[in-house]
User: Fold this.
Amino acid sequence: MTTTQSFNLLQPYKIAEETFVIPWALEAPPVGHFHMNSMVIRGAEPVLVDTGAPAVRAQWLEAAWSVVDPLDVRWIFLTHDDRDHAGNLLAALAACPNATLLTTWFSIGRMAEEWEVPINRCRFMTDGDTIDAGDRTLVAKRPPLYDNPTTRALFDSKTDVLWSVDTFATNVPTPMPETADLSPEDFRDGQLFGGRLVAPWAALLDAAKFEAVVADFQHLNAEVIAGCHCPVLRAPQIPEAYDLLRRLPEVPPWTEFTQADLDQWMALAESSVPPEQPRPSGT
Assistant:
């Protein structure tokens, strides 16, 4: 297991055979941080899984090409078109001329308002579709939770690694490689908070119907779960994460921060600003 001592943002780290997470995170006061990760599968036909955020484009591209030569990349799996997942898509497509974009019809349409994605380089992936990537089979799945209707998760049947996209999102006190570095309380609270933040509609779900969706996802039997907005999960936290996921329809919705909260934060920020110092004479 990777330790926090060897963990640095935008420095890829290995989570399974030929599989690497590119970690990034944003500070999210007052709840800590949220990861903004992506993944690279090296293998016989290398795969980029999401393309990072545009805010760190140069660093993300450097990190990705430190794992794989862009000319060797054969697949770019875009889970959905939100900018934290698709932010460097055009740059990646330009750098990887031999890559096919795995996405959805709706995702292409949503991106068309800003980007012209080369449709001749696309392959549409519906729920349950598979890709033969040479030495492994990749499975596209709609995850239980998502904040974008085009979302597809990705399961690698060779390594039993699941890219869960926004399912299992959690806030963390500081960026970290694995959820094992969280206290049991922070893990539990983070799963319930992240789930409600990503999918506030979970409170509207029929619990029995949702259970069937969660069970289907869990039956992939992933041994490692990575995602955009969470550190890597492994046993025994994977079963616990699924149990917490099942609870979401019965958990009261998260109460959003209000203007009163913002006013309080701004007042605290202003009170902490040191007074302006007098300028030295002669300036």
Notes: The domain at 4-271 is CATH 3.60.15.10 (Metallo-beta-lactamase; Chain A). Residues 184-198 form the longest helix (15 residues). Helices lie at 57-67, 83-86, 89-95, 105-111, 184-198, 207-218, 237-247, 259-271.
